[in-house]
Model the fold of this input.
Amino acid sequence: MQLHFPALLMCSTLLIGEDFAEAQQRTANYDEAKIAAYTLPPLLQSADGTSIQTAEAWSQKRRPEVLALFEQHVFGKTPAPSTWGKVVFKVTGIQKEALGGLATRKFIQVTLPEHPNWQGLEIMLYTPNGSGRPAPCFVGPSFGGNHAVSPEPDVPLSTRWMRPSKDKHIVDNRATEASRGNESSRWPLEMILREGFAVATYYYGDVEPDHAEGWKEGLRAALSPQGTHTVWQNGDWGAIGAWAWGLSRIADYLETDADVDAKHLAVIGHSRLGKTSLWAGAQDSRFDVIISNNSGEGGAALMRRNFGETTAIITKAFPHWFTPTYTTYAGNEAACPIDKHMLIALAAPRPIYIASAVEDQWADPKGEFLSGLHAQPVYDLFGKKGVGVPEQPGIDQPVGDTVGYHLRTGKHDVIDYDWQQYLKFAARHFGR
Ligand code: GCU
Done:
């Protein structure tokens, strides 16, 4: 028996990433009674002890502090624009009769001429035909590439590194013909376009392949002072920061496209990409609606609740998503000067929607709701109603005014039900 111990230990240290997270899912705590009492860090008290009592004091004094705390302790700091320099957008394809004539589809290549080591990202943009006016737009990254989002067979197949898929359509970390349309149920393009909205998306792996060493091939290495950064310091950006950067570059492009109403952009993401959309929305005020779909730990879920995934699990499985400091809060959440109600509050006074799924206990649906609820004091400063209810609502009962929330039937995913709520929410807030 003794002989087996070192071997087992080796296995457990080698196990990181998806496999580690999946193994933890079975043993995580799912019992409310076992959550220890916790105190959330103060939202409306600034570092010098001043109590924040007006919208102006929030915007001028406390909000920048909270944003800086997320940079220092969670996601790291996005480099300044001077770091990446010029951004070039090149429209590489236009199909005016896409989706049977419903939409115009464009591809736009985004590159950084001063950083040729980075291969660039490709935006796929669908705008509705025949409306006669610029369309408000959903902006979100995809897990599988543009060819996976779109059902159209002429969308170029991404040649970039991809995570293996359970149904084996990724071979040697590359997409295959069988990958086409694989993510289209999460992107009901026709439904969105018929409601008069545009959709802009990109493959998150264009910015950085999603594995612990992925940064070496991605934007973060290309922008680092040596061009090959090897040791990430506390406060340096992680992959989520880099993926969020990609979303902001899409916003840059959309501001130049006459088919899009770039004053009405909704940023959206699912799961790790929901963490990304929250961080993109916190940093970039051009996203005037922010949507987090099942973003869970590291996203909307309160980190102080030991329910489902924890800080210890996520920082061990996916250390590359965050700045190194975040790992120091594994099992020591009380020491972290932020919790996720503060991430939601960074959206204020803009509308934000948090969505949970009842079979997605790993993401802690109640913790996701509570973040929205506890962001209310900041929405109050702006005279805005947030979720509008004191308790998590029942299944399939969407709530909320400026902070939308639902707990839907089913598992960790994005389904039409989610989009129906997002379309209503965005239409209401965009005055359409
Ligand atoms: C894992 C991880 C989650 C993440 C999810 C996803 O389950 O533990 O934090 O949200 O992957 O992105 O699919």
